[in-house]
Amino acid sequence: FLSLRPGSLAFNPAAPRRLPFNSASDVLHRAATINPAPRRSRLWRARTRVASQPPGDIDESFGGAVPSYRGSLVVPAGDHFVRQHHTSRSGASSFFAPPFSLLGQGALQRLGNVVSESGAKRCLVVSQTKHLRDEDEKDVLKRLCKELFDAGTDAFIFSDVELNATTENVAAALLMAYEYDVDSIISAGGGSAHDVAKAVRALYRNPEQDAVQELVGVDEIAAGWIPAVPHFAVSTCMGACSALTRLAVITDPLHQETLEIVDWRITPSVSCDDTLLMLEQPREIIAAAGVESLAHACEAFLSNASTPVTDANALHAIRLLSSYLRAAVTSTPKDTKALDMINYGMFLAGVSFNSAGLGLSHAIANALCAKYINLPSSELLAVMLPHVLEFYGEQSEEMNDDAAELFVDLAEAMGCPKTSSPASAVKCVVQSVARLVSDVELPQTLSEVNARQSSTIMRIDDVPEIAAKAMCDCVPGVTSARHPTLGEAENFILQAWRTSKCGECGDAFIVDAVAKPEANETKKNETWVQRYNWVGSDYVV
Amino acid sequence: FLSLRPGSLAFNPAAPRRLPFNSASDVLHRAATINPAPRRSRLWRARTRVASQPPGDIDESFGGAVPSYRGSLVVPAGDHFVRQHHTSRSGASSFFAPPFSLLGQGALQRLGNVVSESGAKRCLVVSQTKHLRDEDEKDVLKRLCKELFDAGTDAFIFSDVELNATTENVAAALLMAYEYDVDSIISAGGGSAHDVAKAVRALYRNPEQDAVQELVGVDEIAAGWIPAVPHFAVSTCMGACSALTRLAVITDPLHQETLEIVDWRITPSVSCDDTLLMLEQPREIIAAAGVESLAHACEAFLSNASTPVTDANALHAIRLLSSYLRAAVTSTPKDTKALDMINYGMFLAGVSFNSAGLGLSHAIANALCAKYINLPSSELLAVMLPHVLEFYGEQSEEMNDDAAELFVDLAEAMGCPKTSSPASAVKCVVQSVARLVSDVELPQTLSEVNARQSSTIMRIDDVPEIAAKAMCDCVPGVTSARHPTLGEAENFILQAWRTSKCGECGDAFIVDAVAKPEANETKKNETWVQRYNWVGSDYVV
Predict the structure, then answer these.
(1) Quick check: A220 contacting B, CB < 8 Å?
(2) Which residues belong to any copy of the Alcohol dehydrogenase iron-type/glycerol dehydrogenase GldA domain (chains A, B) (predicted)?
(3) B54 preceded by cis ω (within 30°)?
């Protein structure tokens, strides 16, 4: 099959096409002349507003406003199952999903048929294989192209997507789409390949917008834009969920900015998650992706913008991930059924946070990743999640009793013994997560994450800066169930630096979905004692 | 606003259009000359195959084959949460959903914005208000048109859809779409308005297909067809769920046939379910729609084609409907939160069966509705559901233990006391459903349904015919967890005729989502005694 650099492309005079520019550099030039944020969206304004607050002094009136579908900053109902979520609010809510998802063993093979049935004849394939040493990933691309070939579809491969997708990648892939007059787009990879494909699709034959910068914000793609071509997204990198979301994150190296596009119309037409692709992955990748998805699901469930629809998906994701992750990671030979269930759990978690948003674990992990490039965000999430859950579960004035009661449902989904006491539910949830993280051998403290790295090193002096940055992270921050003060945020980053919530794992509840109700009944009323197991400053620079 | 009969339409020479025919009668003439099933689909062939079996002798090899996405008759994984579903199978699965759903209070108001943001300027509005005396429905249409008007979109209203959508309705609405050169379609109503809109959208600017007959089957819309216009579906009739599915059922009066179109590409672009529209509905409508949705969710959960994704939706639907339906039906004044939760529950149930399919309650209700026109199918489902669930839950050679264990999850979702015994789970599930049906004052036996009718009357002599027909109902029949023999089917229709499963409601488990685990623990090992409370032949003709 064909793999071409945009620079080497010759025009194809036979193909009817509309080229609003002549080369990738032309696009880049035009992009550079555009104001970095020419159409400041609500999200953008909201972020500026939060950022302009003194750290620790989050505007309460803003706390309830979620960037959702354009024309509505109203927070959706936020009602959960039997229990009321946060305060009683009313209003319409939005739920987003790909119209067609292919899941499970052999999904990739089925995709070939689906693409050809869609009438695709000339397909732009977006991947990052050029920047990967990963032979598996290349192998996936080969298999995909074979399926396309068998189905009678030509593939034009853009393999240059970088690890962090850039505006240059988008411009080059867009040029290639016009050059080859494609009638469909396939992306194969993790987040960045899908993100580039989403941006290319939003710009391809869009008469009103030419550059990624114009798309930034929530639903800022031109009114009246309908996708000109279908987009098929094949996930090869577990847990990222970009194959099913309405989000694209593109880095603008010219302005040193991260551009976030949120628009339901860039949700891929068909998402494809094949369990067989997970079979070849190393255990630590599966473990990290599984816990990352657990963080997606927990934070979506506790989000301010959750709805019964996102709850349904989040709770079942938590059930599947809690029940099957150990087996998926530790079994030899690989436990196909467990991997299948983890694959479905990841999908459900993604569907949930795609509409409900995320919370503080992600805000902090994002801040850490921004400060220390190449730090593995899924490991950071694994460390932060128990601390953040405990913070959410604390009975405080800000959190009313109903909110704490959500932990009763959360605990049940995690297989904790049935309880109606929020306090014991919180305790079991925190310990279950910490125990799972420990069992799948992920790091339990930030200092441990630090120690696993060869070069980049976190510094404890940076904690105040990280905390302040995390509190300005609008996207997960706004939907967060609770907003910490700067002091509280610093405090629990420091805790996460040194302390594992698994300190009591020795006598933790056994996480077992078929647990007997009688077990551990005596511990119900114990208060949750925070034991600080100082790892010492061995790892801290 | 404008309401025109197709016969009275004058051509609009200014509008650019492609008219493959000159009038509705031309379309009908062309449709009539087409073989009723010109392109016999797999579904069609499968049905013929089942129908050609002697009743009661279902082909076992077909039992596992589910009409799913074209190119695959493989049954998806069918794995549930912790428990294995039916036999252990592997394979890819499909999940379908609208890309964007608006739900909750005020969703209709939000839709105006969404339509105008989509760039729609000339919108075909499909409704059945002409055939309705219901002023509420007309009021919804007025409000909708006001939202469109405010958003700058012209509405062209086709209000002639009959109670059962016909090929004539489709032809006339299609003609109107071409005449007015519409760029979008809105349907407002119950199933038939959405079904007509889906068929019109599939044919509008479709260069390869002209008539509904050509679309019949699973994914039989031409390969390469991409919808030319977006479709916004506003549900005004609860429980039908047609606003979010990939199904359309159109009656062909010329050939006296029911045409079923199943294609993911006719899923509406945006579905809209506004809780506020439920506020004006009478209690018995809410009750019937709620129990109909419960039947959707239970049968989807037990379906052969279920996946963890459909399970997530089905289980949460069951939780919401079990917890809130009584309050939604009985509270005075109307309990807005309960109605909201029922609305979400109906959506989740629809999303679930849209991919997982249905079971025997629907097969039997369909057969009864086909025999006795205008019988209320939701009441028939309410009667059949407990009987069918009991049949599914019986330990038999055909159902392995794992399958029966699914009832443990089902019972938990219904708020039954936690149990690990499938037998007591089945008992609690059957009684919970029967109790709910009784509490919301729906009929509990077929003879009671009979008695509530003024004109049409079921005859007990017809039971063998109904049973045989139900077993030939391919669509819910194939995904049914268990296939009865003809004798078994007759038997439980007869049971449903005379006996309420609520016979033991007096000492039934209390359905309470926050039930104490200890309650009713002593009843755990009781065997399920079928008590036949013969209502007598008072109602039976």
Answers:
(1) no
(2) 99-274
(3) no
Shared domain check, A238 and A368: no
Question: Which residues of chain A make contact with B413, given a CB cutoff of 8 A?
Answer: none
Residue A63 in any domain: the answer is no
Here the CATH number for the domain that contains residue A216 is: 3.40.50.1970
B336-367: pLDDT as tens digits: 889 989 999 999 999 999 998 888 999 898 88
List the 30-49 stretch of A: residues with Cβ below 8 A of B: none
Instruction: Inspect the interface and report whether the beta carbons of B224 and A341 lie closer than 8 Å.
Output: no
- Chain B, 78-117: which have a CB under 8 Å from a chain A CB? 79, 81-82, 84, 88, 90-107, 109-110, 113-114, 116-117
User: What per-residue confidence (pLDDT) applies to B134?
Assistant: 60
* Interface confidence: ipTM more than 0.85: no
Inside any domain, residue A426? yes
- Considering only CB atoms, A97 lies closest to which of B82, B97, B230, namely B97
Two tokens, residue A302: 């506790």
Q: Which of residues 335-354 of A touch B (CB under 8 A)?
A: 336-337, 340-341, 344-345, 347-348
- The answer to whether residue A327 is domain-embedded is no
Q: Residue A382 is part of which domain span?
A: 358-525
Residue of B nearest to A317 (CA): B312
With an 8 Å Cβ cutoff, is A217 touching chain B?
no
| Positions of E strands within B369-437 | none
- Distance separating alpha carbons of residues B348 and A446, to the nearest angstrom: 39
Co-location of B266 and B319 in the same domain: no
Residues B328/B338, Cβ–Cβ less than 8 Å: yes
Give chain A's domain count: 2
Q: In what order do the strands lie in the sheet with B257-262?
A: B217-218, B257-262, B247-252
Q: Is A82 helix (H, G, I), strand (E, B) or coil?
A: coil
Instruction: Convert the pLDDT of each residue in A267-286 to its tens digit.
Output: 999 999 998 888 878 898 89
Q: What is the pLDDT of residues A454-497, one digit of tens each?
A: 776 788 888 998 898 888 775 666 778 777 888 888 988 998 98
Q: B55 vs chain A: nearest CA distance in angstroms?
A: 34
* Closest CB to B307 among A79, A119, A344: A344
Q: Judge: A82–B312 Cβ closer than 8 Å, yes or no.
A: no
Beta bridge partners of A262: A218, A247
pLDDT of A503 strictly over 80 = no
Give the number of beta-carbon pairs within 8 Å between A and B: 210
Helix (H, G, I), strand (E, B) or coil at B9: coil
- Read off the DSSP letter of residue A214: G
Q: Tell me: do A374 and A268 sit in the same domain.
A: no
Q: Are residues B361 and B427 in the same domain?
A: yes
Alpha-helical (H) ranges within A264-307 are 283-302
| Domain containing residue A477: CATH number | 1.20.1090.10
Cβ contact A64:A87 at 8 Å: no
* One domain for residues B112 and B141: yes
Flag if A106 and B99 touch (Cβ within 8 Å): no
